[in-house]
Design goal:
Blueprint: H1 7-14, H2 27-34, E1 47-51, E2 57-61, E3 67-72, E4 78-85, H3 89-100, H4 105-118, E5 127-136, E6 143-153, H5 159-162, E7 175-177, E8 185-188
Parallel strand pairs: 1-3
Antiparallel strand pairs: 1-2, 3-4, 4-5, 5-6, 6-8, 7-8
Helix pairs in contact: 3-4
Length: 194
């Protein structure tokens, strides 16, 4: 089984055990896991969002580049760390806001679609989102079964305007998803590492 973590990060993961009883992991833990999706060269300079002990979202570290990273509930066995261009922040923030209000995924999609079409929700012409999904092995505290996805947002583009298929023609893509909508994007999924 291939492992991706250097010794220092493994040591940080071991600290998860001491935070298992707390609802919100330490700031250090959140920053470490949140930046895993970012390219190595951009991790140290990325802005990191995370959760304070009361569960509210806050800036845990102000960055100096154009990336924003967030690990969604990194204390769970299954987690998702995402890094995206700051131009996507209005889109991402609106999704978090609607989710907090109890909206379903379909409702969030529809509301953002309407707001993007009307100009109320600002969408960049193009922007990158990188997502790393994985599992924390409770015995070794290492991240396993991880896989990376690259999502290039190209709002309202279609298969016809991009020349991309609606499903991957080869493993990993690229292909276009949600064509013609605010969430139209090119998907590239490199082979999974296990």
């Amino acid at each position: 089984m291939k492992r991706i973590l250097p010794l220092t990060l493994i040591m940080l993961l071991v600290s998860l055990v001491s935070h298992a009883e707390t609802k919100v992991p330490s700031v250090y833990w959140q920053i470490t896991t949140a930046v895993l999706a970012a390219p190595q060269l951009h991790r140290d300079q990325a802005t990191v969002l995370g959760y304070k002990p009361d569960g509210t979202l806050a800036v845990l570290r102000e960055g100096s580049n154009d990336y924003i990273c967030l690990a969604d509930d990194p204390a769970k066995k299954n987690f998702s760390a995402a890094c995206y261009h700051k131009g996507l922040e209005p889109f991402m923030a609106r999704g978090r806001e609607l989710k907090k209000e109890g909206k379903t995924e379909t409702e969030i999609f529809d509301i953002r679609e309407e707001e993007a079409k009307s100009g109320k929700l600002e969408m960049p012409d193009k922007a990158l989102l990188a997502v790393l999904n994985g599992e924390i092995n409770p015995d070794t505290q290492e991240i396993e079964k991880h896989h990376l996805r690259y999502v290039f947002y190209i709002p309202f583009e279609t298969s016809e305007t991009t020349g991309l298929p609606l499903a991957p023609a080869s493993p990993g893509g690229p292909w276009i998803m949600n064509p013609g909508t605010h969430r139209a994007h090119i998907m590239i999924t490199p082979p999974k590492n296990h």
